[in-house]
């Protein structure tokens, strides 16, 4: 159901010894909405992903899934809760076919463990077509696809296997304008299907094209939590770039 709260973080902190990677982060992720988490390198985005994905337990604070408090001890716990993470480097085997990558680790088998190849090919082809990716042949190696297409394969795979929340780790970072546009369109498709999307990015322009809510991190601190109605692209870009710091620097350079 669109608008239903899927995830809520309350005052999540993560410390590594004396280093405070996250400091009292609070956010919510709703069904049918894109929550964008922005920040430069070192802002805390990667640590937040690790907490959400069950890789690292928070040092303090509470995470809720569908209103119930949870404590993840592994990525399997997050997956079982319907949270799937698509990392920037993509967990794909380049020389393996598209359909094999689609079912990697979750293959359909019949008698004596024999792979149901045709069934898996048909499912992969249908799911990709529904996401707008029309491949002539799902037997081609995944390495033969564009960067944007590989991202979409990973997104479609996560949705097919039951993800209710999709965490996307900088999916457009290494892509050009056209390929980025492809990925952003499919983020919108996932959103419109009722998936709760967490879009991790350092690009405010990409975030603003698809985002419903914007969380800005800076050195582990949450410095902005605003809906698309509450903040303009110009304001988001200014805060992302340092806002007042840039203005001060501009005056110094012109002096």
TrEMBL record:
GO terms for molecular function: ATP binding; ATP hydrolysis activity. PROSITE patterns: ABC_TRANSPORTER_1, ABC_TRANSPORTER_2. InterPro entries: AAA+_ATPase, ABC_carbohydrate_import_ATPase, ABC_transporter-like_ATP-bd, ABC_transporter-like_CS, P-loop_NTPase. PANTHER family: CARBOHYDRATE TRANSPORT ATP-BINDING PROTEIN MG119-RELATED (PTHR43790), SUGAR ABC TRANSPORTER ATP-BINDING PROTEIN (PTHR43790:SF8). This is Sugar ABC transporter ATP-binding protein. It comes from the Bacteria. It holds the Pfam family ABC_tran. Residues 7-244 form the ABC transporter domain. Keywords: ATP-binding, Nucleotide-binding. The keyword Transcription does not apply. The keyword Nucleotide-binding applies. It comes from Corynebacterium alimapuense.
């Amino acid at each position: 159901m669109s608008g239903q709260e899927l995830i809520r973080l309350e005052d999540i902190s993560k410390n590594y010894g004396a280093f405070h990677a996250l400091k009292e982060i609070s956010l919510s992720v709703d069904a049918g909405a894109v929550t964008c988490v922005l920040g430069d390198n070192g802002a805390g985005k990667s640590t937040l992903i690790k907490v959400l994905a069950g890789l690292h337990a928070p040092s303090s604070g509470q995470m809720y899934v569908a209103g119930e408090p949870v404590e993840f001890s592994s990525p399997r716990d997050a997956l079982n809760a319907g949270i799937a993470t698509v990392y920037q480097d993509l967990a794909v085997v380049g020389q393996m076919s598209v359909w094999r990558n689609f079912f990697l680790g979750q293959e359909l088998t019949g008698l004596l463990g024999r792979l149901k190849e045709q069934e898996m090919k048909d499912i992969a082809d249908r799911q990709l077509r529904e996401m707008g990716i029309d491949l002539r042949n799902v037997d081609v190696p995944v390495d033969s696809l564009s960067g944007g297409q590989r991202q979409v394969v990973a997104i479609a795979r996560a949705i097919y296997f039951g993800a209710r929340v999709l965490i996307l780790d900088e999916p457009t970072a290494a892509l050009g304008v056209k390929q980025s546009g492809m990925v952003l369109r499919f983020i919108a498709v996932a959103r419109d299907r009722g998936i709760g999307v967490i879009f991790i990015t350092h690009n405010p322009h990409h975030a603003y094209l698809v985002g419903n809510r914007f969380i800005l991190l800076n050195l582990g601190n949450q410095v902005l939590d605003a809906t698309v109605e509450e903040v303009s692209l110009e304001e988001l870009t200014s805060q992302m770039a340092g806002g007042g710091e840039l203005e001060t620097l501009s005056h110094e350079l012109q002096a």
